[in-house]
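OP here, attaching both records as promised.
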Amino acid sequence: MRKPKGPVSTAPILRVESGIVTTLDDILVTEEPLEIRLGHGPEEDRKEVRLSVTMRTPGNDEELALGFLFTEGIIDLPAEVLRVVTCENVKEEELGNVIRAELHPSLELDPAKWQRNFYTSSSCGVCGKTSIEAVRAQCPKPMAPFGTIDPEVITALPERMREAQTVFKHTGGIHAAALFDRAGKLLILREDVGRHNAVDKVIGALIGSWSSSDRGGMQEPITDHILVVSGRSGFELVQKCLMARIPLMAAVGAPSSLSVELAKEGGLTLIGFLRGARFNVYTGVPQIGKET
């Protein structure tokens, strides 16, 4: 029986250095497909929908599925998902790579919300969507401003994220997303070969941790959070941030024109080129300085 793969694997390589050839094993980040299925409908007549396939790094798959459903607007509340389980009754080559989210019987599934998400790659989560309208999810109303930014806190975040990355230390080939509080304390970190998957895993972990009293909607504690991503801040990552009501997003890389436009519309403070002691603020125009 095929065993599900872990986050890393090995491959034999030839290393050439100063003309000398050495044979050794190299550690690689694992990339495997994950099929997300939905169970929905009344208890007496459950149906299954094959929602999406995403190329991901195995691990935290339940969080990935929950975050994906939430940021894509397929669910509005975590309580609308009864459970997320790995499917066992699949082909041998699919073991560990198929997951099913059981939706609450009272939730009416809108086909327009899932037909647009058939395939997502590890590099670009929107490539498989079937219409231009489907690319842009219905984000909530604009958020309240994040407020004063402390440069010393912000510039310290990438290094704190790197220090907590276990897979990156071994492979150097994986993205990360990390959630911090306003003071710079690391709350959640997830790694994945796809940056949009890493963000979905963080958001899935966040909403999955809410107590039952929190499940009536977005709660106040999230409004002080900062999301840091290891790569560029593309449109889809900004959209996920807005859906989760995270008011500040900081990226090591550059934003795109559309991500800046969407961040501005949604009231998101967007930071890019967060490297060393410098960063650029693209939207939000906050006060820069320490809190008094």
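Record two, same layout:
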Amino acid sequence: MNIKAISEVLSAVKDYLFPYEKISKKFSKINSEGDLAIFIKEKSAFVTQSTLYGYLKTRMGLKQNLMFTDDIFVDSVNKAKWNIFSEAVTDLTFFSISLLNKKYNIDNLDPNKIYETILENEILNGLPKDMCGKYKAKFKEKLNDFDIKEYSSNNPFNNSCNALFHWAPIADELKELDKEVVINSIKNKWMLVVADLEKIPVNLK
């Protein structure tokens, strides 16, 4: 396989994870609950794509072309993608609402409506309906313990960090060796998202 072909394979694999999103979209403002939902969805997709793809690329190298020839592997990548994404949306929904309450004293947002809207819209993009239902139920359970004042300061992205480690379709013995690096990689991506949210003008009152 020549360099050009290798490059095309890697690019295709990266686009495969979330081909419908332009992950690099810039947000200039958040003026509505709908704007916030879009921010949460796209940033969650960014974190999921960049960390899962990065891990697969590192561990598999040129064998990534198996994604296009091995149905079992394709299924496992899809399963991982949607599970990680669903947890990422959970984390970022809670974090955003907590941060905006702390920073702007905003308390009129509906986290469950935001979360359910995001996941239901993703069914058209391939999120399995049963998985959507499972995570909506899990979100409602977590909402019972949600502390809007403290969530953003108390390991807010722990669930999605663990989801990347758990769901990535890599052999368990290799994942154990990679655990610290994998967890740090997704934490670093979340730091970028937090920095973005801190900078964006918000007018939701």
